Amino acid sequence: MLSGLRIVIIGYVWPEPDSSAAGKNMLTLLTAMREQNHDIVFMTAAADSSHKADLGALGVAVECVRLNCDSFNHRIAEIRPDVVIFDRYMTEEQFSWRVREVCPSAIRILNTEDLHSLRQARWEAVRNGLPVDQACKNTLLAQREVASILRSDVTLVISSAEYSLLTSHYQVPASQLLYFPLLHDVQEAHTHSSLPDYEQRQDFVSIGNFRHAPNWDAVLQLKQHIWPLLRKRVPGARLRIYGAYPPKKATQLHNPAQGFCVEGWADDAWQVVSHARVLLAPLRFGAGLKGKLLLAMEAGSPSVTTAIGAEGIAETDKWPGACHDDTDAFVESAASLYADKPSWVAAQQAGFSCLRAFHPDRHIPTLLDRILSLTGDPQSHRQPLFLQHLLWHHTLSSTRYMSQWIAAKNQLKE
């Protein structure tokens, strides 16, 4: 049994499980580690957040760290971690060389959340009027992100599609990757009496952090193209849009007379989704897994989305609801699903079945076993990784010396 490791997690931001799927994913990771009785320290240089999870209640120690400061080196040396997990490639760039310098035997794990370079490339393609499958994969950002992956001992990849991209296009060794998706647990009660039935639900719902570019683009697609057509098909329904950090440009779209209701923060995302009849997610670009769609399955709410939304979760022709990139087909399926109870029930049950692939019991033991094997003999794992040695020899020199220059400059100011 794997237990008693000293684990440091360096967060890019504070975990906010009610704000984003990434926040919920980080909390799941922390909870799984604590359940195995590991000693965990969560570090971050991010500004404080009133929406952050109460990590102390989980038994996780919390520390703030400074960027470009040798105080981190001193502290990490005191902790002497067995494992260090970097939240996103930017954190790995900033802190991994320090960890490697002070604690060379510590296992370095990168948690991607999603491939930022893929999301950015797809966004650029959409803005240039190109289909997302023509997005450039060999960008400077991709070079940075893949370099971060190659420097790490193992990288957690949440999407099977991204796992395939990393191994086939970027030639990342499978020994440095671990498929670890967003985890959702459907309780048996959720499929029966505790969930509102078809007649008890009303309206359409859309949900997603407004600071996330794919979500904001989806809101605009709903407002400008989809909802005007859908409202004509289902005149008595409303579309309720929820999400963290709604900007003024979003709240200005609120128009109850048109049935377009920008609700903003959801105190309980599961509650608002489980009381809606259909979830809409017209995502034109993005990466990773879409937590809102897994949440919809958990809440028993069929969804209508796009190929980007379905990516890594299910085949488009087997989606628990409907999957279309064409606006007219999207609207037709949403209206039909909303009005046809037998189709709605079938889609709901298909969602429950789909969600089984994301049950924690399928993935957490694999993660813990991988960590155990790495901590047992890290050098055997690292020895054949030529590109890892090459990158450590060259590519982080600029980051390292720039950070040291900033640290020296800051000392002169103090």
Summarize the structure in words.
With 414 residues, the protein is an alpha/beta fold. The chain folds into 2 domains: 6-183 and 360-413, Glycogen Phosphorylase B (Rossmann fold), CATH 3.40.50.2000; 188-358, Glycogen Phosphorylase B (Rossmann fold, 3-Layer(aba) Sandwich). It is built from 17 helices and 13 strands. The strands form 2 sheets. It has a 7-stranded parallel sheet, sandwiched between helices. It has a 6-stranded parallel sheet with strand order 10-9-8-11-12-13, sandwiched between helices. α2 (71-79) crosses α3. It is elongated, with a radius of gyration of 22 Å. The N and C termini lie far apart (48 Å). The model is unreliable at 188-192 (pLDDT under 50).
Give the proportion of residues in helices: 40-55%
First and last CA, distance = 48 Å
| Secondary-structure element pattern, one letter each | EHEEHEHEHHEHEEHEHEHEHEHEHHHHHH
Low-confidence stretches: 188-192
State the total count of DSSP E strands: 13
Strand order of the largest sheet: 3-2-1-4-5-6-7
CATH topology of the largest domain: Rossmann fold
Topology readout:
Elements: E1 6-11, H1 21-35, E2 39-44, E3 61-64, H2 71-79, E4 83-87, H3 89-102, E5 107-111, H4 116-127, H5 140-151, E6 154-157, H6 160-168, E7 177-179, E8 204-207, H7 213-233, E9 239-242, H8 248-251, E10 260-264, H9 269-274, E11 278-281, H10 291-298, E12 303-305, H11 307-310, E13 321-323, H12 327-339, H13 341-355, H14 360-376, H15 378-382, H16 386-394, H17 397-413
Parallel strand pairs: 1-2, 1-4, 2-3, 4-5, 5-6, 6-7, 8-9, 8-11, 9-10, 11-12, 12-13
Helix pairs in contact: 2-3, 3-5, 7-12, 10-13
